[in-house]
Amino acid sequence: MKYIVHEDGAFDILGRSILLRGCYPAINGRALRPVRVEAAKTEITYVLPQGSVRLSFKMEADRLSVDCTAAGLRGIHDLAPLGNAAVEGAESVFVQGFGMEGPSGIFALTEKVPVSHGLTALCSGESILLAYTEDHRRYSAGFRVKTCEGLFDESVSFSGGFNLEGTAGDEVTVPSLYIEESAGLAQSLRHCAERIAGAMQARHVQPPAFFWSSWYHAYETMDKAALEEVLAGIKAEDIPLQYIEVDAGYTPHLGDWLTPNHRWPGGLQKAAEMILDAGFQPGIWVAPFIVGDRSRLYGEHPDWVLHGPDGKPVVQLRCYTEPKLWGNSDCDYYVLDTSHPDALRYIENVFRTLRSWGFSLFKTDFMLWNMHDTSAVRRHDPTLTSVEILRKTIAVIRNAIGEESYLLGCIAPFMPFIGYADGMRLAGDCGAQWAEPYGPVNMLRELPCDNYFNHVFWQNDPDAMLLRDFDTNLKPREARSLALLQALSGGVVSTSDPVHRLGDDRKRLLRLTQPGKKAVSPELPQLDRDRRELMLTHRLPQGNLLFVMNPTDAPLTVFYRLSELFGDEIWYQYRYDWDEDGVVSTKDDTFAGTLLPHDSVLVFVTREPLREKPSNLWRW
Question: Which of 247, 480, 504, 534 is the most exposed place for a label (fewest CB within 10 A)?
Answer without folding.
Answer: 504
